[in-house]
Amino acid sequence: MIEKVNPSHPDKVADRIAGAIVDLAYANDSNPKIAVEVLIGHGVCHVVIETTADLNKADIIRIVHRIAGVMDTDIVIVPQDKHLTGNQKNGVRCGDNGIFKGMPLTLEQKELSRIARNIYDRCPYDGKYIKDGTRLIICQSNVKTEDLQMLFADAEINPLGDWTGGTDVDTGATNRKLGSDMADSVTGGGLHGKDLSKADVSVNIYAFLKAQETGRPVELCCAIGDDTIDGIPYSEVVTIANDFIQKLGGFEKFAEWGLY
Fold it and tell me: How many structural domains compose the chain?
C-alpha cells in the first residue's frame, strides 16, 4: 500500500519553493548552511529561513511567484545558530542527530510512481494516487473523470466528483508528504529545504540508495558532529547525496517527487 502526490499538490509546492531557495543559497555560496520552512495557502506564502548565505528577499519572492503564482509573501531570514555553524568549521561533519532507514522499493511502489508521473504529464495539476494491491485510487484535479476512466478503466477516480485543487483550496507545508517521497524509508527527518550537511538530506539519500543497491533494509544513526557514518567519511555520504540531487537537476527538482 502506497500513496504518491504530484508536484502541484500544495505540500509539494511548499517543498519545491524550499528546494528552490536551497538552490539559490548554493548559487550564492559553494557551501551554505540553510534550513527553510514554507507554509502556503489561500493567497499567502510564509517562509522562514535560517542560513549562513546572503539571500535577498526579492529573489525569494520571485521564486514563490514562479512556482506558486503571484501572492502575498511573508519572509523571515535569520542567521544560522553560531554553534551549528561552528560544527562545520574543521571539515564536513554531520549537521544533526538522527535515525535513518533505507528500504528497497516494492514493485507496487514503483508502479504507482510510474502511474503518477504518467498522469501528471497529461494533467499538470494537483493530484494524489493510492495503490493497494489491485485497488488503484486516482484523485486528479482539473480533469474530467471520464477522460481518466478511459485510461484506467478499473481505477476509482475522483470519488466525490471533479475538483479544482491547488493552494487556493488547501494549505501546503514543507516535508508533510514524506510517505510519498520516501515510501517505507520514512523515519523522523524531512528531506526538503536543507543543505547537504544536514543528515536528514544526505543520510536519508545514502540509506535509500544503498537499500536499492543491496536489496536489503539499511538502518543508521548519527550524532551531530560525527565525521563518519556506516564506516565511511561523512564527506563521502554528502558527495553521494549531492551526485543524486544534481542528476535530478537540483534541490527544487528533487522536491518534485522525492526519492523515487
Answer: 1
Q: What is the pTM of this model?
A: 0.97
C-alpha grid cell for residue 159? Answer: 470519488
Q: What is the DSSP letter of 61?
A: H
In a domain, 66, yes or no: no
In a domain, 39, yes or no: no
Residue 115: inside a domain, yes or no? yes
Largest CA distance in the chain: 60
41: amino acid identity, one letter:
G
For residue 67, give the nearest of 4, 139, 9, 120 by alpha carbon: 9
Provide the sign of the torsion angle of the four alpha carbons 65, 69, 71, 74, taken in this order: negative
Instruction: Using the predicted structure, report yes or no on whether residue 188 has a pLDDT greater than 90.
Output: no
Q: Is 164 exposed, middle or buried (0-12, 13-18, 19+ CB in 10 A)?
A: exposed
The residue range of the domain holding 128 is 2-6+106-168
Task: Give the pLDDT confidence score for residue 88 in this predicted structure.
Answer: 81
Mean pLDDT within 167-185: 97
Bridge partners, residue 123, by sequence: none
Is 120 a domain residue?
A: yes
Report helix, strand or coil for 117. helix
What DSSP assignment string belongs to 182-218?
Answer: HGGG--S---SSB-TTSHHHHHHHHHHHHHHHHSS-E
3-state helix/strand/coil string of 79-100: ECCHHHHHCCCCCCCCCCCEEE
Q: Write the CA distances from 85 to 47, 50, 51, 95, 225, integer angstroms.
A: 21, 11, 9, 9, 11
